[in-house]
Amino acid sequence: MTLELAPTPTAVLVEGGVGCGKTTALIARAATLLEDGAVPKDIMVLAATPDAARVLAARLTEAAGERGSAIEVTCAREVALGLLASEEGRAFSGRAGRLVTPIELGFIMEDMKTSGLKQRRLREMLKFFYRNWTELAGGADDDDRWLIPGEEADTHALLKDVLRFTGGILEPEASAMAVRFLLACPEVLASAQRAHVLVDDYQMHSRASQHLANLLARDSITVAADPTAAAEVFDSYPYSEGIGEFTQANGACERIALNESHICASAARAASRLRASLDASAATTPAASNCATAAASFIALEATDPAAEVASVADAVQTALEAGADPSSIYVLAFHPSWERRVARALEARGIATATPVRGRVAAGDYRDLDRCAAARLLTALALVANAHDALAWRAWCGFDDYLANSAVFADMRAEAD
Known about the structure:
Strand content: 5-15%
Number of helices: 19
Distance between the termini: 29 Å
Low-confidence stretches: 282-289
CATH class of the domain at 10-81 and 184-258: Alpha Beta
CATH topology of the domain at 10-81 and 184-258: Rossmann fold
Structural class: alpha/beta
Number of strands: 8
Order of helices and strands: EHEHEHHEHHHEHHEHEHEHHHHHHHH
Shape: globular
CATH architecture of the domain at 10-81 and 184-258: 3-Layer(aba) Sandwich
Helix content: 40-55%
Strand order of the largest sheet: 3-2-6-7-1-8
CATH superfamily of the domain at 10-81 and 184-258: P-loop containing nucleotide triphosphate hydrolases
């Protein structure tokens, strides 16, 4: 049975579109709690992404000084992994309490091929599993009644066996597993709870992350949300329906609607800061030093659909180039890699070359060829040096330089171990 959201004595929902001041309202709420006598350790703030958490932490420090800097600002995933990495969490889950890395996920997918399913069918089924994990389909007991007996149930059981054997946790199951852990261990829940929890961009969290946030709130929870902006930026399968679930679970929920957008001025200030950081000489220009000038130079482009939005960005870039702008002085910032790719394709279709920044992610390479997966082998070796009992790292290490990645051998090992 699907889990019901845990109600909280005091619940506040701050609603509004982009740039309406929802995050500012959360910061003001945290500052008010401190003024009313709450101590920093009583408060937890959850952001949708690690970058957003860092920005929020800086703004809290600016707003509330040293006491504001002592408030924990983090992401639901980090909270979940911290709980699952504890001794009690590891005992509950039977896992090692860490996420599977992209390199290790490649080997787990090789192990899943022993199911005999065609690759496309397997990918579709895994996505179905992942979404249902984030939506807590198995309830508090993580039962499998939501699965169809036969191929679906067997494939799900194989995936769980592989994860249990290696001890790894997949990102879509982290928050869900943490929720079940807290529900099964009331004493751990009591120690993990904070008097006040504040959640920014609530709609960008998965349903499991939303439930985790509500479980952690003992006295009050304040969430900021925009139902029209449910994009997958960190959590898999963001759950905008959770806003309605939140208000339904908290019947006396206070709702604050913010209708006036301040996006133009704030975006202009952010653009000025970016320009100043990229070009020291820009710091002395009026656009960098005068917010009013920056705001006046800001142009909002309105579009009726995503395709028109991308086209309007490409039009703006093309217009600037035709006016004589230096291509290296033009930056296009996108909220998600898929939008970066869309804009890049639109520009390249007009003959405008683009350059994208390096992501900083180590490529796994082809683990079947030792010469092409040096980075992956080095990272795996470091994991083994850090923990010689890391079954997930050992599984990857034993699969390098093998065409079949030793998946059949590991299937036999799991059966023998059982």
